[in-house]
């Protein structure tokens, strides 16, 4: 990690984890995955990171300053104070340097000796350094003492929710990860602290308020409790300049590390979902709505935008009694291996449908609220949702037709009661009871895979 000194404007590059994050870093990282109360009950010893630093969140504009540009310009001045005076009033001529100087001044006033800024603290000429930074960025934002979100397009504070900052992909993890975060307008006037601005942030991002830290709840990470579909829906509203970055910028949100392959296009998002699949049994990963760009789909979405309505999903892992008993997933050269319980029709006979052409409704281990007035499940406290009668199970439809592999059709996700059979072949008699049936394994593949 490379940090910038806030007064002499010189870099310090260190791979010394003890200097950067202190001896208790491992415990610290485990600690943020737990509720504060449970952490204290278990007796973890908290130690502040050794190198206290601030971090900047912003959208890129014109004349941003690279690592090379910064070093070249810094060598022209004999001291940090000369460098500061040269650019602290050059907002129009040198907006990139002006932004860096203003961020450093703010950090210095708040007793922060170091700051990390993505434009100048990463040498993007090095692909290995860029890869390391992207894979580590979530941790770096989490471990910063304070994060400054600079909204360059906000003049009037009541328009904060209209800022471009809320639409950029990289800014999502920068919103969620920091322990403490303050927002600033185009002239670096403070707008407010993240907890006090939750209403505006909810309006701008679609993230439910319960997943954002409340005022005064520093070092609180409630977003970690959200299911996969919820997290994907937050990203579905955003954009990045590079297609691949739609996947790379949310690696940290899902706790994933993977190589960066610029040029792979949409395959980056497919690789991300495969990595999630290897680590999680949260079936809300499959709770997305297709569109008509492809003839047929697999179980994994071709684009994160298809999760736009995923905010209304609740993972079955939070409702133990509802869990679907399914074999582990496995990606093969024939497609994603997927098992479902194929319901036996009334009378106990097996399928009368033609094996070469089938359409099956498959129940997932995720749910939506029943009542229309409370259709958004995020309005319910996920820790107090034990009543099965309040929820419907989410279903998808998979097809098998001549000349095609098993695939997901164009039907949107839909819901049935929790007593509905988990795998009903359309056209067959309605199964006698949900629990009866036979385990059926299929290999599901999309046109784009």
What characteristics describe this protein?
18% strand; 449 residues; 25% helix; Vegetative incompatibility protein HET-E-1; six-stranded antiparallel sheet; alpha+beta
Describe the model.
- The protein has about 450 residues and is α+β, with helices and mostly antiparallel strands.
- The chain has two domains: about 220 residues, no CATH class; about 200 residues, no CATH class.
- It contains 13 helices and 16 strands.
- The strands form three sheets. It has a seven-stranded mixed beta sheet, with helices on both faces.
- β6 and β7 form a beta hairpin.
- About 10% of the residues have low confidence.
Give me a quick take on this structure.
By secondary structure, the protein is of the alpha+beta class. 25% of the residues lie in helices and 18% in strands.
Shape: elongated
Arithmetic mean of pLDDT: 83
Widest sheet: strand order?
2-1-4-3-5-6-7
What order do the helices and strands follow? EEHHHEHHHEHHEHEEHHHHEEEEEEEEE
Write the layout of secondary structure elements.
Elements: E1 2-5, E2 11-13, H1 17-21, H2 25-31, H3 36-41, E3 53-58, H4 67-74, H5 80-87, H6 95-109, E4 114-116, H7 118-121, H8 127-143, E5 146-150, H9 170-176, E6 181-184, E7 190-193, H10 198-205, H11 228-236, H12 245-248, H13 267-279, E8 314-315, E9 330-332, E10 335-343, E11 358-369, E12 391-400, E13 407-408, E14 414-416, E15 423-425, E16 437-444
Parallel strand pairs: 3-4, 3-5, 5-6
Antiparallel strand pairs: 1-2, 1-4, 6-7, 8-11, 9-10, 10-16, 11-12, 11-15, 12-13, 12-14
């Amino acid at each position: 990690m490379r940090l910038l000194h806030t007064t002499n404007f010189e870099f310090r590059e260190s791979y010394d984890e003890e200097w950067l994050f202190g001896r208790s870093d491992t415990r610290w990282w485990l600690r943020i995955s737990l509720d504060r109360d449970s952490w204290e009950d278990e007796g973890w010893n908290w130690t502040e990171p050794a190198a206290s630093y601030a971090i900047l969140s912003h959208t890129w504009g014109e004349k941003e300053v690279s690592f090379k540009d910064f070093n070249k310009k810094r060598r022209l001045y004999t001291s940090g104070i000369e460098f500061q005076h040269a650019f602290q009033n050059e907002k129009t001529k040198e907006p990139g340097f002006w932004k860096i100087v203003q961020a450093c001044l703010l950090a210095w006033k708040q007793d922060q000796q170091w700051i990390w800024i993505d434009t100048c603290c990463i040498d993007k000429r090095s692909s290995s350094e860029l890869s390391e930074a992207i894979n580590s960025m979530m941790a770096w934002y989490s471990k910063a003492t304070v994060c400054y979100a600079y909204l360059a397009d906000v003049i009037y504070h009541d328009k904060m929710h209209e800022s471009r900052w809320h639409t950029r992909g990289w800014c999502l993890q920068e919103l969620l990860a920091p322990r403490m975060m303050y927002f600033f307008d185009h002239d670096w006037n403070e707008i407010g602290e993240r907890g006090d601005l939750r209403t505006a942030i909810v309006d701008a991002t679609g993230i439910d308020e319960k997943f954002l830290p409340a005022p005064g709840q520093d070092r609180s990470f409630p977003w970690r409790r959200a299911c996969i579909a919820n997290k994907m829906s937050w990203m579905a509203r955003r954009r990045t300049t590079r297609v691949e970055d739609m996947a790379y910028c949310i690696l940290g949100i899902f706790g994933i590390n993977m190589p960066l392959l610029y040029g792979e296009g949409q395959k980056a998002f497919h690789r991300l979902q495969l990595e999630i699949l290897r680590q999680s049994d949260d079936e809300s990963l499959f709770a997305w709505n297709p569109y008509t760009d492809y003839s047929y789909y697999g179980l994994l979405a071709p684009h994160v935008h298809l999760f736009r309505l995923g905010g209304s999903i609740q993972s079955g892992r939070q409702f133990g009694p509802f869990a679907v008993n399914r074999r582990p997933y496995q990606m093969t050269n024939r497609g994603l291996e997927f098992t479902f319980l194929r319901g036996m029709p009334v009378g106990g006979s097996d399928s009368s449908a033609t094996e070469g052409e089938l359409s099956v409704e498959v129940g997932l281990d995720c749910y939506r609220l029943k009542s229309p007035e409370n259709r958004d499940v995020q309005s319910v406290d996920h820790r107090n949702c034990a009543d099965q009668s309040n929820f419907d199970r989410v279903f998808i439809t998979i097809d098998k037709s001549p000349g095609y592999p098993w695939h997901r059709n164009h039907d949107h996700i839909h819901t049935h009661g929790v007593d509905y059979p988990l795998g009903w072949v359309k056209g067959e008699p309605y199964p006698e009871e949900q629990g009866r049936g036979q385990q059926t394994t299929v290999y599901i593949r999309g046109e784009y895979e």
